[in-house]
Amino acid sequence: MRTGIGIDIGGTFTDLVLRTGAGRVLIRKVPSSVPNYGRAILSGLAELLAEAALPAAALAEVRHGTTVASNAILERKVARTGLIATEGFRDILEIRNLRMPRLYDLTWEKPPPLIERCLRLTVPERIAVDGTVRTPLARAAAEPAVRALLAEGIEALAVSLINAFANPAHERLIQEIVAAMAPDLPCSISYDVLPEIKEYERTATTVVNACLLPVVARYIADLETGLAGAGVAAPLLLIQSNGGLTTAAAARRKPVTIIESGPAAGVAGAQRFGRASGLADLVTFDMGGTTAKASLIEDGEVLRAEEFQVGAGIVAGSRLLTGAGYLVRMPAIDIAEVGAGGGSVVWIDPGGALRVGPHSMGADPGPLCYARGGTEPTVTDAALLLGYINPHALAGGAVRLDPTAAMAGFTRRIGGPLGLAPEAAAYGTMQIAAATMIRAIRAVSVERGRDARTFVLFAFGGNGPVFAAAVAAELGMRRTVVPPAAGLFSSFGLLLTDLQHDYARTFRRVLAQAEPAEIETAWEELAAAGRAQLEEDGVPEARRRIVRTASLHYQGQTHELTVPVPPGPLDRPALAVLAEAFGAEHTRVYGHRAGPEEPVELVTIRASAHALPEDDIGWPAPPASATVHESVRRAYFGPDRGWLDTAIIGRAALTGGRAGPCIVEEYDATCVVPPGARAALGPFSSIVIDLP
Amino acid sequence: MSVDPIALELFRHAVFAIADEMALTLVRTTYSGVLKDNMDFSTALADSEGRLVAQGLTLPGHLGSIPTALETVVRRFGESLAAGDVIIMNDPFDGGMHLPDIFIFKPLFAEGRRVAFAATVCHHTDVGGRVAGSNASDSTEIYQEGLRIPPLKLYDRGLRNDTLLALIDKNVRLPVRVQGDLRAQLAACHIAERQFAALIARHGPAWVVAAMAGVIDYAEQLTRAALRALPDGEVSFEDWIDDDGIDRDRPIRLFVTLRKRGDGLTADWSGSAPQVKGAINSTLSWTKAATYTAVRSVLPPGIPNNEGVFRAIQVSAPFGTIANAVLPAACAARGLTGFRMVDCCFGALAQLVPDRVFAASDGGNTGVSIGGYHPDRSPFIYVDFTCGTWGGRPWADGLDGNANIFANMASQSVEVTEAEHPLEILAYEFVPDRSGPGKFRGGTPYRRDYRFLAEEGVLQVRADRQRIRPYGLYGGWPGQPSANHLNPNGADGGRCLPSKVTMTIRRGDVFRHEVAGAGGWGDPLERAPAQVARDVRNGMISAALARRAHGVVLDAAGTAADEAATATLRAQLRSRRREPLPTVSWHEPEGEHTQS
Fold it and tell me: Same structural domain for residues A64 and A185?
């Protein structure tokens, strides 16, 4: 087994998980060092290596999840970037698709375009939708635009021309001009970033990529320098939004792939954990301080989204309303997020209803019980008041909690006005928070046509296991699994994932009239790019795998469905199999399909290049949990059951099974097993909670 | 039966989750792009009498339509409704809105009693009539507009009405799509039925009925609390639609009076024009939706969409007017009137709560359709709805390139349009100097140029605000009018077209639509000079307009304001003013000229 480390950076904590060659796992949570994230990484790394008695040179790889890209967008600390577009289409980036995320709200502000209009210039050229050149681009006509932007002091350049997905010649010409005039200027052309139809999606994604180029390059260079200085010789790998790893060199070229890096690692880890322990169908539930996130793993595969919004903040509630952030069309794990976390504020609205979130006190000043100047009662205060969390045990006792502050806040602000005892108000808070989180889970299950009851809930994050059993009960899910190191499972997940690179290109052909050889050639180009990347990554040929999928629709439909492509050469019978696979998927998703006379159209061809896991990867042994002195604490489980004496135990005490109520306390998380439920140790030291 | 506040909040989550899940089911299972891209549909859960309990977050224009339709259903069928029934309807003169909007309702039963309705309404691709898409603005009576469906049972105790379905099939142009979308509506109702049954199983019917009433009361309390915080008063506003496309020289009056007293508000549309020949007549339900949209927009966010809101906001309009049309009025293109009623209502609200209301937006979306036949006689039809400017606001500029507050529609991709239709889009970009100047300027409009690539086709446009411009508020100037051009780059300079037009076009013809610029808010001379300079730098306004409207003089580089010269020019411009700034402006101040 290779010695490796997983490092996941969050807003509050940086989590590190070290796996030694002997299969030992050590964990560490250190406060994040903003804005110089490298410092926390290096100090945590040094501590772990010391604990494991290993030299830095023993590390074979460093795997990393980072929010550097999404934070740069959120805070708009991106490079000063220029855009070159087609004459007549200067404002595609700013007009967007017109849609807004809120109704009846005159205060809505569109996120300002990442490139201001004065840095968006056009050139006279036009390519038709079939790729033929209508108006040729003259070098002499393009040069002034590049020159003008250079004079404005741009630090990066995006080029996105109408119909360039069908013919990149003009974008390539501008790229050449830039290479000649400013060889050091980072430049993205839309054909390289996203060779797909739809000018807004392509332009928006190319712009996000371009304006991140210098940011991510700097971040990676700093981190690599720091690691080298600490004696680490191992390559740096980063996790992408699609849940696969990429190399530092590839991430530098295409930073748009690592935007949703943070949340992806936990889901990818859950997928691998599920495969190893025979759980094919999981709903993942990751709850931290400000949000709760859910995603779906079906038949061992994660559910993917083709696009997402970055920099939107949390828009609670419906996924019907989009447009709050910056659109990125890149494959990503489909994650639904709601504004309900430990820091979410509990309040009473003018209609007299008890509400939870989406506003959060965050980690600073934090909940009332942190006694750091928090002014509003929060979900964590409710959990403390109810006896679910230990006032002395947060982050191994590093943070002390003040139960009297929580009690006073709930009594005065919530219980009093509603005429409820403080524990009843706190219990109601937990129920309403759970209802909000359930909307995230429903978003990836019921709203995708899946029945959550046939899935296992896989709970992690600092607060996930506190709520998991209650959430599962509400959804009718019978089983909940809490993995080891639940509180820093995202870093753990990093150790379980593999390299993956995705490629796609618009290739519109009506299947019945298509020339198979032409499609095969186009597909082979994508596959070749994937193989070349894996070669560059140092993956031996035997471990390379290319998976082809196709997005199709009935001619005239505006949305596509993606299906696997039959293996083997793409001849006419194979195209017929593809058409049939599309029809079957149409029935599965929409409940019906059209007759054979409706033409099926290929829209996008896709290829994913995977590095298969090494055979001897094995499964890391769980971290040894600190010995917990068993004790008993009073905890409140609703008006029917009231206050109950609840055993406080370590994970090991679950051997042989145990009936709730009990609470498993660990360094990084707390797991509540409510009365009526049964908990036992499962594979790889996971906690398995079964509901009646 | 009483419901405690925590249980009520949990129930509210549950019923709104049902309405949203219905909406998502529709999006997931629908066949047509109109629904996916334009979100031109709504879903809801109503109580046994059809009172709205929870509406999904989709189209503001549909708020109020479902209870109106359900009222007809309950009146028509009453106690004869049974488990397994499904009702279909679309007749604007029998509870509907316009013919393309087909309603599907499913009554939900518990212990043998009707306790609720699952409700959906969708804009269908085509329901027959004289023009493909059933959306023509130049029809003059409803009989030209397509198939009228009174409230009928599509399913009778679970048995499908194949006679009715066969009749629908033969009267629409794209039966596969219509059937597919009807199936999507049914799927949404089934989802609601299943989820609602789970609520009943858990809490019992009596508790659920009480909780539905509780959720309505809660919305009413929130609405009334919000209204109470507004000043009392009676305000009215007058605005005009250019014309109905038939009687080209006759503007159409919209007039509303809002009376706000204590915790209630009434909106009275008396004084609005009689119904017109063209297809822009509105049903009362559409008028209500427009009124609710404007009023809700000045109330705090987060009020649930249900009957509780309607209890606090009463809307009336006399029969036979454009705001409450009667048979045989044509109404397919009444969307336009709704948008303009929203503008009119905002104009009234601006006098009641000046700090919360924006100046006039672009007047709502413009419908452009281009249709014809390929050489092999197969038809093509391209339909685009486009809009994009918000009026200047008392605290910020109007938005540039954003959906109208009344319809959260998405734009269509230029490239997809070119891939699927015999069209080439030559331009889609902002036009400078068209927004209304103000302390906070109106949104900047864009133009779209379409070049026609087939042999011959029919162009139909439904636009407005070509003669009656988007008004400015509190000293802000109005926005520039919308424009339609044919062959603007032609050797002869082409020609201007009226706002509503149906005409034949040929290969190579270019049609240009320019959205109207939105009105400005506040005195343009109070606009921060840096903001003006930024607009000039970004090409949103010219240096000439910066001087003329804002009194801002740019420095030699043309990128920043020259402070001294600006102060001098502003003093000069102020001293020339003879009258106080008007509350509502329809034209530039005297002595100023429209610049095109």
Answer: no
